[in-house]
Amino acid sequence: MGRETPEIPQPVRSAIAELWRTPSHTEDSAFNSAAFRLLEGNSAAVYLAIGDSRLRQEPSTSAQPNELQTALRNFFRWNGAPWYSGPCPDADKAALALHQAFLATEVKRTLLAPLDRLDLENPTQRLHDPIKSVRFGPNNVALLSSAALGQRVRHDALKRFGRWHQFPTEKLDDFYWLVVSKREEAGPIWERTWLAILHKTWDEIGQVPVFEPIYPAPIEDALFVLLLSFAKESKEASWAPFAVPWVYSLTDDPFADAPRAPDSSALTWTLIGHPNEELEVPDRSESFELDHQKLDALKRRWQRLQAVLTKADTDQANFHPLTKHFFVKALADEGIDEIVANISCIEATLMLKEPKGRTKMEKRYKHLLGNGEEFKWLKRGYGLRDEYLHSLGDPKGTISWKDLGQTRWSVAKAVDRYLELTEQKPELNREALLRSLQN
């Protein structure tokens, strides 16, 4: 996506036509040909002269041949060319696509996160009928076949980048995926390849963020809402409704490097069938029924989250961003680290900087949920955290699934209720909202 595209510059059109006529049977022969050097030179001359082209957006005034070469090579790998097998655009279509890429102002990024072990059932069906797609906001939880997954990641194009980039679609057949797409600035071509590191300053390299999301922000937002929606009291098993071992991120920018292939072995399978005739299929041991009422509740939670996020960094902010961070972080943590993340989440939600902060936080918790089982488990979680945080716990000790599950449940209930409260009292900022819970 970009501005209205003017006519393709003749030097670019003629250079690609010459490259298409050059007899090249391999990528190396094509990229080392005089025709490719002509395209490189003509592209530099044309797009450096256009003030806001993506080639012109450089941190220095000189052209960067290595960056241009890398971008052009990526372009042909993504789009196809005569020296590759498979479909190939004609020279005019390739020239138009290249011209549009140099003038683009936006590209689309797609993020795919496998939801390991998740199973979604339609309770209105008599037989087990998995739900194929659940949409909320810009997010989609989809059950994808290997063919559908291959189309989303452009599997055929990835083959041209080498074996380290070939997405293992066949091994990841029939898993649930969280799929999120967003628009972002196209930016200069040097930001889309590994050569971007050459333009970082020493100050940038030497700075470490105080906290950074474990998952990209759009994925973290969606996971936050999914975890609240799938939370359930669990006294005999782990609380987690799914696992997210990694996130695969790619753009439709034809100048970008291809991402490395993810590790399929990080996901979970199970065996079915008779002995000696067993098949390995995705593990769907965490099953949830999702009827219309639950789907509406999921969408409502998403709307509440978006409402509080729009107030961030204003004097009307009523939601601490670390609530989301720690709530999702607990998904990736285990043992005492999971407890620490959960307690940090409830403090980010209900605690202010004030004397006797924990006592007042507990009072707010009781006003939200009452002095029932949830509060007892919150106290139990606090005790476990304090014991280990102050080096009083046994490093060889254990924590039960019940402790983990019930602590998570007590936190999830409070976070969910707090989001409801922000909707009920949108005129109050976070401090005013929390102080109202003390009365």
Number of helices: 16
- Beta content comes to 5-15%
The oligomeric state is single chain
Please state the structural category: alpha+beta
The total count of strands amounts to 9
The main sheet comes to: 5 strands, antiparallel
| Order of H and E elements | HHHHHEEEEHHEHHEEEEHHHHHHH
Gyration radius over CA: 26 Å
- Spans of at least 5 consecutive residues with low confidence: none
Folded structure, characterized:
- With about 450 residues, the chain is α+β, with helices and mostly antiparallel strands.
- Helices cover about 45% and strands about 10% of the residues.
- It contains 16 helices and nine strands.
- The protein has helices at about 10-20, 25-30, 35-45, 65-80, 90-105, 145-155, 155-160, 200-205, 215-230, 290-310, 320-330, 335-350, 355-370, 375-390, 400-425, 430-435, and strands spanning about 105-115, 120, 135, 140-145, 175-185, 250, 270, 280, 285-290.
- The protein is globular, with a radius of gyration of 26 Å.
Indicate the topology:
Elements: H1 10-21, H2 27-31, H3 34-47, H4 65-79, H5 91-103, E1 106-114, E2 118-121, E3 133-136, E4 139-144, H6 146-153, H7 155-158, E5 175-185, H8 202-205, H9 217-230, E6 248-251, E7 269-272, E8 279-282, E9 286-289, H10 292-309, H11 321-332, H12 335-350, H13 357-369, H14 373-389, H15 401-424, H16 430-436
Parallel strand pairs: 2-9
Antiparallel strand pairs: 1-5, 1-6, 3-4, 4-5, 7-8
Helix pairs in contact: 1-3, 1-5, 9-10, 9-11, 10-15, 11-12, 12-14, 12-15, 14-15
